[in-house]
Specification:
The protein is α+β, with helices and mostly antiparallel strands. About 55% of the residues lie in helices and about 10% in strands. Strand 4 and strand 5 form a beta hairpin.
């Protein structure tokens, strides 16, 4: 054969490889993540009167997304709203307002409504988190695309992520975490390793890091706190594992953090002031955060939202279905131990292992529990429970830090095995098959199932179609029955979200102060006598004997709420509630989807 020629057999495959777009495999991985996220949420698409199992939390976030879109369109202050808890309003910077999600999703919310926006947000959080970790793995840590894809899959769709996604958007939205870490632990240029780096190599990444931190604050401050703690623990472990590398990278890292701190401090100065000192600010927490801890046995169990999960055991080992943040199964934990022993010589692996161990122990809370039984043994969290910020943290959520650690460890191992085929002494294909099979077997119990849904009472047609508008003048409110102020499932909050915050209303599901002179945190607004009375009837179905004092109190409460109309939608004990309101305010009249009481004349 003449020099410079080649057979067709060698030319065709090379030409085929060159003709395939380089981005196509990455796009297929991302499409796979998106497809899985859509599959997990399919039970709610096109079903307006179904919510994910933690229905009250979904109502909360639907309202937050609707508020963000309303604030963008109307040009209102996004940090505060009087659409809920009228007339006092809600400090949204002090609540999980997820403006960092709601503002970008404004077109979706305006075109398709709050429920579709919520489902899109869930899909974006799961698939976006997986994609972000895939990109970081692919660019920085592994050469095999398949290893990065599996690592991203674990990071985005582990049981804890799926459990949080059904209720807590601010915890499931972790797609900025890899980008923040990539800038914090940015590889130093060759000249920096020799001690000569340019200011631009610190200022530009530092400014970008500061902007990402600001965005994360407006998505969820809790994730940012956990990220900062985890990065600190990881950096300490990495320093202990490789002191020489830590010394080389420390100047640039400190410089980036300094620039990021300045950028974030300038942009967040007013929002943070508003959160801690603005109207309707509060102090402390409205619930005992320390009580939300994981059972040690939860780490080897199967979560509800997995193919092998059930309702009984997870309920014993976690505080509620949303906080099933561990539940990795025995296979993945054994695999992780094997990987750490196998790759122990790598400083990265040692630092990751130490970080995961610290946060797994912290998630066990102040007292160790095993199989649902308190042991009386103090948990490590007791040592830090009194520190600022940590005293408000939910211990069970510390286990979420273990999720990306496990994803990274598995990806590193798969990449190492793939590289082993090029070593002369390696067995080659059988090693890859055996290890890939072990990884598949460990991940099989973690395969997620679609997020469970529960029914919800529809918004009354009278409210949804705007029949209330001629009866509610500016400055007056729509009062839902019962006027819920502190319960998780708030009818008026759902009505408000689904109508795009069309009317102001008292009550709602949020955290606020206990009173004008008492900043102690509580759920909802301080109770008023009429709200307590009607809530009791709704819960028991028992119609009370009312007095003239009760009727005068009802008018006084309605005057406080600046009510124009009172509306009763569907309730399990709707008839007893209707008869009670009739006795308080006079006969109501039926409207589409419920009953109406026009109280404008009574309130004045």
């Amino acid at each position: 054969m003449a020099t410079g020629t080649a057979s067709p057999a060698t030319v065709a495959p090379a030409a085929a490889r060159r003709s395939r777009p380089t981005w196509l495999p990455d796009a297929l991985v991302v499409a796979g993540y998106l497809g899985l996220a859509v599959l997990l949420t399919y039970a709610q698409w096109g079903r307006p009167w179904q919510l994910f199992h933690q229905a009250g939390d979904q109502v909360l976030f639907e309202w937050m997304l609707a508020h963000a879109a309303h604030a963008v369109v109307e040009g209102e202050n996004p940090l505060y709203s009087t659409a809920l808890n009228a007339p006092d309003g809600v400090n949204l910077m002090a609540n999980t307002s997820v403006l960092g999600l709601g503002v970008p999703l404004t077109p979706v919310t305006l075109l398709f409504g709050s429920q579709v926006a919520f489902c899109v947000a869930v899909v974006s959080c799961l698939a976006g988190t997986a994609t972000a970790w895939y990109a970081l793995l692919r660019r920085r840590l592994v050469s095999a695309r398949s290893a990065a894809a599996v690592g991203g899959l674990i990071c985005g769709f582990a049981p804890g992520m799926v459990a949080q996604a059904g209720a807590h958007l601010h915890m499931a939205a972790q797609f900025l975490v890899p980008a923040i870490l990539a800038l914090v632990f940015r590889p130093a240029p060759a000249r920096a390793e020799r001690g000569a780096w340019r200011p631009a190599e610190v200022s530009r990444p530092g400014a970008g890091l500061g902007l990402l931190v600001v965005w994360q604050v407006f998505i969820g401050e809790e994730v940012l706190v956990f990220l900062a703690l985890a990065a600190g623990v990881f950096a300490l472990g990495w320093t202990l594992a490789d002191r020489a590398a830590a010394r080389r990278h420390a100047p640039a890292l400190i410089g980036r953090l300094a620039v990021a701190t300045v950028v974030a401090a300038v942009l967040l100065a007013y929002p943070l002031w508003f959160q801690f000192r603005g109207p309707q600010h509060y102090s402390g927490m409205a619930f005992a955060a320390h009580g939300f801890q994981l059972d040690a046995a939860s780490f080897t169990a199967s979560a509800r939202q997995t193919v092998f999960g059930d309702d009984w055991l997870p309920g014993l080992l976690s505080p509620n279905p949303t906080e099933e943040n561990s539940f990795f199964g025995p296979g993945l934990l054994v695999l992780a131990v094997v990987i750490v022993i196998w790759l122990w010589r790598r400083p990265l692996v040692r630092a990751l292992a130490g970080c995961a161990l610290v946060f797994a122990l912290l998630s066990l809370g102040t007292e160790l529990r095993v199989d649902g039984t308190a042991t009386g043994i103090s948990g490590p969290y007791r040592l830090v429970a009194g520190l600022p910020l940590l005293d408000l943290a939910v211990p069970a959520r510390f286990a979420l830090v273990c999720v990306p650690v496990l994803g990274l460890l598995v990806a590193l191992s798969l990449d190492r095995v793939r590289a082993a085929r090029r070593l002369p002494a390696a067995p080659g294909l059988p090693v890859r098959l055996l290890w890939s099979g072990a990884v598949a077997a460990a991940l099989l119990p973690l395969v997620p199932t679609p997020i469970r849904v529960v029914p919800v009472a529809p918004v009354p047609g009278f409210v949804a179609d705007g029949g209330w508008r001629p009866l509610v003048p500016p400055g007056r409110t729509v009062v839902a029955v019962p006027p819920v102020t502190g319960a998780a499932r708030s009818p008026v909050m759902l009505w408000s979200a689904r109508t795009g915050l069309a009317f102001p209303a008292p009550g709602g599901y949020f955290i606020g102060p206990s009173g004008p002179d008492d900043p102690t945190a509580r759920w909802g607004a301080p109770d008023r006598p009429t709200s307590v009375l009607l809530r009791r009837v709704a819960e028991t179905g028992v119609v009370p004997v009312l007095t003239d004092a009760d009727r005068r109190q009802a008018v006084e409460d309605l005057r406080h709420w600046r009510a124009a109309v009172v509306v009763l939608g569907y309730l399990v004990n709707g008839d007893p509630v209707r008869r009670t309101v009739d006795d308080l305010l006079g006969p109501g009249r039926p409207v589409d989807g419920g009953w109406l009481w026009d109280v404008t004349d009574q309130v004045g």
